[in-house]
Amino acid sequence: MVRWEPGAKERLQVAALDLFVEGGYEQTTVQDIAAAAGLTERTFFRHFADKREVLFAGGAEYRATFVDGVLNAPDGLGAFDYVRAALTAAAGFFAPERRPWSRKRQRVIDANPALLERESLKRAALGEAIAGALRDRGVQDPDARLAAETGVVVFHTAFTQWIAEGEERTLLEVEQEVLDRLTAIVPA
Amino acid sequence: MVRWEPGAKERLQVAALDLFVEGGYEQTTVQDIAAAAGLTERTFFRHFADKREVLFAGGAEYRATFVDGVLNAPDGLGAFDYVRAALTAAAGFFAPERRPWSRKRQRVIDANPALLERESLKRAALGEAIAGALRDRGVQDPDARLAAETGVVVFHTAFTQWIAEGEERTLLEVEQEVLDRLTAIVPA
Fold first, then answer.
1. CA A128 and chain centroid, separation
2. A42-100, pLDDT tens digit by residue?
3. Reported ipTM
4. pLDDT-derived band of residue B4, with 50, 70 and 90 as boundaries?
5. Which residue of A106, A128, A153, A174 to mutate against B (max B Cβ within 10 Å)?
6. Per-residue DSSP letters for B106-167?
7. Using 50, 70 and 90 to split pLDDT, how confident is the model at B3?
8. In chain A, which residue's Cα lies nearest the Cα of B149?
């Protein structure tokens, strides 16, 4: 009989991230993670296919946040205003209480080339997802792809700043600053 | 004694790409590639660390083209004009005679998730390289990063169109069109 462990997934994620930061991602085993969370390996594998998935779980939900931002925006906007709606939605997803987790996660990823490859691919998938939503709203290519990819650049730039040590502004505030810089850089 | 094989590297690359397209990347062995090129495996490994490197060799030269474009541009330009200089240099690198190779290479990469991860990372490295060149020209962050990443988006969008079946314009012409779309999408 499988016993339900309330909050097991979150406990495993928190324990894993602490172990990755302290002892290194490669050196940490699933056994270590389960033990630190006070759970069994079997419970771990009910929630995650492997160790790497602790860092990449929720990717579909993450992309859906941006996509829903586009799909729930008013009709008749320009491509870039749909992207703004996606960025606003993303800022809701990355609420201030998520910042410490995001900071630690990035440290682990930056230290491991294989994780960086996976993270790059995740970013590419985000661009595809937003471009698809823009097409659903009637934006044609190449504008849909271009606006989506530019939005990902803005998001990534803002996110990197948001998790910088000492940064206290919300993600929405940082995104707004980056959008302002973009419009200043790109000639009319 | 090592016998010098003139053009061995290029012969291996052409043979490998044809085999990857016809028989699949996973199914093709280094032995197959060497045999198809009329060379030995030992010669293969003098030029490439492994099978994957046939597709990713020359990455440093590729990045250097964009970087040199920025570094050789006139003084005192805005961030975006330096990026334009990088894109113009890249269009020189991807001359029309390179297009059939680029088309085949992309087909192989698109069919293989592990190669796509590597390609995504290559794209991230390009953004880093251009951002570094912009900083050398006096552009501050976040503008340097933002302009560089936006330039990579423009390049990638243009490149994807350039290798589309039936596309006959030069990469420079397609880049110009994509730049025009970008300036139309991003509000002043």
1. 14
2. 999 999 999 999 999 888 899 999 999 999 999 999 999 999 999 999 999 999 999 99
3. 0.79
4. low
5. A153
6. HHHHHT-HHHHHHHHHHHHHHHHHHHHHHHHTTPPTTHHHHHHHHHHHHHHHHHHHHTSTT-
7. low
8. A153
**pLDDT at position B53:** 94
When pLDDT is averaged across residues B134-151 and rounded to a whole number, the result is: 94
**A185 vs A182: CA distance, rounded Å:** 5
Is residue B6 over pLDDT 70? no
3-state secondary structure labels for all residues of A23-51: HCCCCCCHHHHHHHCCCCHHHHHHHCCCC
Helix, strand, coil fractions of chain B, as percent rounded to 5: 75, 0, 25
Interface of A to B at Cβ within 8 Å reads 78-80, 113, 116-118, 120-121, 123-124, 142-143, 145-147, 149-150, 153-154, 156-157, 160-161, 178, 181-188
Global pTM exceeds 0.90: no
- Kindly report the average pLDDT of chain B as a whole number: 93
The span from the CA of B84 to the CA of A142, in Å, is: 19
Which pair of structure tokens corresponds to residue B111?
């069919």
Q: Which of A142, A154, A186 is closest, CB to CB, to B157?
A: A142
Q: Å from B84 to nearest chain A CA?
A: 11
- Report helix, strand or coil for A138: coil
Q: What is the pLDDT of residues A161-175, one digit of tens each?
A: 999 999 999 999 999
CA dihedral B134, A123, B114, A109 (to 10 degrees): 80
- For B130, residues 6+ apart whose C-beta sits below 8 A from its C-beta are B66, B67, B70, B83, B86, B148, B151, B152
* Separation between Cα atoms, residue A182 and residue B3, nearest integer Å: 54
Are B17 and B39 spatial neighbours (Cβ–Cβ below 8 Å)? no
